[in-house]
Amino acid sequence: MTTLDRALEHTGPLEPSMLLTPHSLDEALRLLAAGDAAVVAGGVGHTLRRHDRRPCPATLVSVGRLPGFDTVTWTDTEVVIGAGVRLSALEADVRLAAAWPMVTEAAGSVATARIRRMVTLGGNIAADDDSHDPPVALAAAGARLTVRDALSGRTLAIGDIGGLRRDELIQDVRLPLTAPDQGTVGSSFQKFLVRGLWEYACVNVGAVVRLDARGAVRDLSLAVGSVTGGPVPVDLAGLAEEAGEAAGGIDDRVIDEAARRAAEQTSPYGDVRGSAAYKTRMIAEFARRALTTAALRAAEGTGR
Amino acid sequence: MAVPLRFRLNHEDVEIHVHDPAATLLDLLRGDLGLTGTKSGCAIGYCGACTVIVDGEAVPACLQMVGLLEGREVRTVEDLAGPGGLDPVQDAFVTCAGMQCGFCTPGHVMAVRALLDRDPDPGEEELRRTVDGNYCRCTGYVKILDSAREAVALERARAQEVR
């Protein structure tokens, strides 16, 4: 393999890994219980780590083809997405696109179509990378993760993924659903790419607007990625109440204030995609766009 | 310690012993099996030069961990030409001169092959989306798109001949 990175020229050959292939979730959790193995699903993240000569665990437990791990199930109150669902399947899920367009937009914006066929939702989240797209949308949606170890289970917020232990596995991702008589929900994911395609975001933002049955704003939510500690939920305290007083949905002043807070409360880092100062301005702009689109969708009654 | 790996490669059952299940399919094909038709470009999944077909889907071989291939089906560009001549997709690239240096060509051919296996009559948008998944730094894509359109026509003609 040819590399132009001089830092990699002096590293030795890669140590081989051991790959274990369990046939059930319980068997996978038993293999992980020792705490010295890592989960591998689509394998993309691990392959890129090896490509970059970053430390890799000696033992991998393959979970990408576990039975029942790649299903999407619906109840009246939530949609449960198996952690093994590929991003390409998520992107193409018509029912999910109607309920949470922000989530299918985020899944469909990752890398290339060919890579999305390999990457699982659970793997994308567990990578704990602040620039990954789906976690930004899921954080804005208030999704919860079901995680399990060999003995028990618990739930985590997306922002708590750093607390996932080596002996734990993400089993599924749960998105709340709103009953039709409780109003409408609109959501939108916005990703700013400096080159226009196929790269990590300069800025990525997810937004949710909930309207009550009268069309007044009941709740607003924003999450920002590609920033330190991301995805960062933006504190919009008081804004929904302020917006709710105005008839006819959300007005520009509320959107501007939400965008200002998004920029104020996040700490982007300068890199090849832009300086920190530039990204701060882009965060405000793309927060504005995401909220505007989410509000339109909520008003139209689509994108619950 | 080498571990056994069983999968189908170009319509043949193979069992090989791999030293490192976390190695890439690209390295296995080129380095161990001598199937050098699959090209190594960016090695991070973006350029499409190493595109192969796994279980009917075009994937970058540089991101495909070999240990995850157990029981699966892999096709490489070496599988396309047969006793009857070139595959229609290969024929189309020759007919339309859809290449200059040729480095990206196997990846383009496999990507279009995977598309036609899934959808024998894709629309223009689908063709563009497929071609978009492979970098070509020579042609500007005009003749590659011509080749993809020609491949659809040749595939259709061949299917009618079979009927």
TrEMBL record, chain A:
<dbReference type="InterPro" id="IPR036683">
    <property type="entry name" value="CO_DH_flav_C_dom_sf"/>
</dbReference>
<dbReference type="InterPro" id="IPR036318">
    <property type="entry name" value="FAD-bd_PCMH-like_sf"/>
</dbReference>
<dbReference type="Pfam" id="PF00941">
    <property type="entry name" value="FAD_binding_5"/>
</dbReference>
<keyword id="KW-0285">Flavoprotein</keyword>
<feature type="domain" description="FAD-binding PCMH-type">
    <location>
        <begin position="12"/>
        <end position="180"/>
    </location>
</feature>
<dbReference type="InterPro" id="IPR002346">
    <property type="entry name" value="Mopterin_DH_FAD-bd"/>
</dbReference>
<dbReference type="Pfam" id="PF03450">
    <property type="entry name" value="CO_deh_flav_C"/>
</dbReference>
<keyword id="KW-0560">Oxidoreductase</keyword>
<dbReference type="InterPro" id="IPR016166">
    <property type="entry name" value="FAD-bd_PCMH"/>
</dbReference>
<dbReference type="InterPro" id="IPR051312">
    <property type="entry name" value="Diverse_Substr_Oxidored"/>
</dbReference>
<dbReference type="InterPro" id="IPR016169">
    <property type="entry name" value="FAD-bd_PCMH_sub2"/>
</dbReference>
<keyword id="KW-0274">FAD</keyword>
<dbReference type="InterPro" id="IPR005107">
    <property type="entry name" value="CO_DH_flav_C"/>
</dbReference>
<protein>
    <submittedName>
        <fullName>FAD binding domain-containing protein</fullName>
    </submittedName>
</protein>
UniProtKB/TrEMBL annotation, chain B:
<dbReference type="InterPro" id="IPR001041">
    <property type="entry name" value="2Fe-2S_ferredoxin-type"/>
</dbReference>
<dbReference type="InterPro" id="IPR036884">
    <property type="entry name" value="2Fe-2S-bd_dom_sf"/>
</dbReference>
<keyword id="KW-0408">Iron</keyword>
<keyword id="KW-0479">Metal-binding</keyword>
<dbReference type="InterPro" id="IPR006058">
    <property type="entry name" value="2Fe2S_fd_BS"/>
</dbReference>
<dbReference type="InterPro" id="IPR036010">
    <property type="entry name" value="2Fe-2S_ferredoxin-like_sf"/>
</dbReference>
<dbReference type="Pfam" id="PF01799">
    <property type="entry name" value="Fer2_2"/>
</dbReference>
<dbReference type="InterPro" id="IPR002888">
    <property type="entry name" value="2Fe-2S-bd"/>
</dbReference>
<keyword id="KW-0001">2Fe-2S</keyword>
<dbReference type="InterPro" id="IPR012675">
    <property type="entry name" value="Beta-grasp_dom_sf"/>
</dbReference>
<keyword id="KW-0411">Iron-sulfur</keyword>
<dbReference type="InterPro" id="IPR051452">
    <property type="entry name" value="Diverse_Oxidoreductases"/>
</dbReference>
<feature type="domain" description="2Fe-2S ferredoxin-type">
    <location>
        <begin position="3"/>
        <end position="80"/>
    </location>
</feature>
<keyword id="KW-0560">Oxidoreductase</keyword>
<dbReference type="Pfam" id="PF00111">
    <property type="entry name" value="Fer2"/>
</dbReference>
<protein>
    <submittedName>
        <fullName>(2Fe-2S)-binding protein</fullName>
    </submittedName>
</protein>
